Amino acid sequence: MRQTFDRFDPTRVPSPCFVVDVASIEENLKVLHRVQEESGAKVLAALKAFSCWKLAPLYKKYLSGTCSSGLHEARLGREEYGGEVHCYSAGYKASDLAAILEVADHVLFNSFSQWKRFRPMALAAQAKRPELHFGIRINPEHSEGDVALYDPCSPCSRMGVPIGQFREDLLEGISGLHFHTLCQQDLPPLKRTLEAVEAKFGRYLPRMEWVNFGGGHHISRDGYQVDELIQVIKDFSARHQVQVYIEPGEAVAIHTGVLVAEVLDLAWNGMQQAILDTSATCHMPDTLEMPYRADILGGGLPEAYPNTYRLGGMTCLAGDVIGDYSFPEPLQVGQRLIFDDMSHYTMVKTTTFNGINLPAIALWDSRTDSLEVIREFGYEDFKHRLS
């Protein structure tokens, strides 16, 4: 794991602030580029995980394009990132789909009922833009996720078509299949998924031009089996004569960014309490939803160091608690804390609940120590969200 932020001075930015290390983003992109070049797969960045488009010029150097979850992400991919634009949604509104068909290269449908309803519109758009391709998301009914909330193959999932509902009679116009089973996982779960896909849907693969392996691949994480992934992709592509796509999101931004926060107050109620100018519910909701524990640079588990605190946000939500942490020295009002690994699935999920301000956004390059605050938010951003 990279430790570039150990030498970053958190007082250089406003608080709270997301700080993204451009050098670390590029290192991740280089790993993904190697997979693309050596396997023959096309690698797409999943904008749902990290869509700081000021970094789009880097993406253009290393990846084949982007994948999106709806109209706005698809537009952003087309306008800023270049390359191929893929779009999947659990359900399309007709007005959104009409716009998506003007900017996307691959449009993926979650059900045959949506495909049947919109096929005339889709094929008419394809007649004008022959580069358009259409696919169906399949559900291999093979769970690899540890948390049900993030398991697209959990029982009664709304995501994708199970084999019992697959409509061979509606495949005209469909050139590919898409599946997604992983969440922050390495290669063995993907290999097991491919076995399930081939066992259930293998008879349809000869009719396909491409297969999208979805996201959740932790390719840039230390210890990931990159060489073996390359071979798995090559073997699958050769076996079925298809173009393989993968669409990592977290792998682009893992261990690339932090959230700087400031201690506002110290109190005691059963244990030492510290109130911060950030919020679990507003600024790092996965700590409540996943749930997971965000690491703090220089901090540790409760009682690991002499001074243990419960860190909470400034909202009225009683459960707005980030967690219990210990520190070598007592915390001080005004002290800055640095939460690690806060780029992916954090920046994209922020809210202004209670009117809490959104964190600023800064780009830092650990190679040169250059720093640019690219976005700050204020009252007008809150005010104009709802009226």
Fraction of helical residues: 25-40%
The share of residues in extended strands comes to 15-25%
Tell me how many strands there are: 16
- What top-tier CATH class of the largest domain fits best? Alpha Beta
End-to-end separation in angstroms reads: 43 Å
Structural class, please? alpha/beta
* CATH architectural arrangement of the largest domain: Alpha-Beta Barrel
Helical segment tally?
Answer: 11
Query: For the CA atoms, what is the radius of gyration?
Result: 22 Å
Helix and strand element order = EHEHEHEHEHEEHEHEHEEHHEEEEEH
Arithmetic mean pLDDT:
96
Oligomer: single chain
User: Could you name the CATH topology of the largest domain?
Assistant: TIM Barrel
Describe the structure.
The strands form two sheets. Strands 1, 10, 11, 12, 13, 14, 15 and 16 form an eight-stranded mixed sheet that branches. An eight-stranded parallel β-barrel has the order 2-3-4-5-6-7-8-9, surrounded by five helices. It is built from eleven helices and 16 strands. It is α/β, with parallel strands linked by helices. Helix content is 29%, strand content 22%. The relative contact order is 0.16. It has helices spanning 22-39, 56-62, 71-81, 94-103, 112-128, 187-201, 226-240, 250-253, 280-283, 286-289, 379-386; strands spanning 17-21, 42-46, 65-68, 84-89, 106-109, 133-137, 176-178, 210-212, 243-246, 257-268, 272-276, 307-312, 321-327, 336-340, 360-365, 370-375. It is elongated and about 65 Å long. It has two domains: 4-19 and 257-342 and 350-386, Lyase, Ornithine Decarboxylase, Chain A, domain 1 (Beta Barrel), CATH 2.40.37; 40-253, Alpha-Beta Barrel (TIM Barrel), CATH 3.20.20.
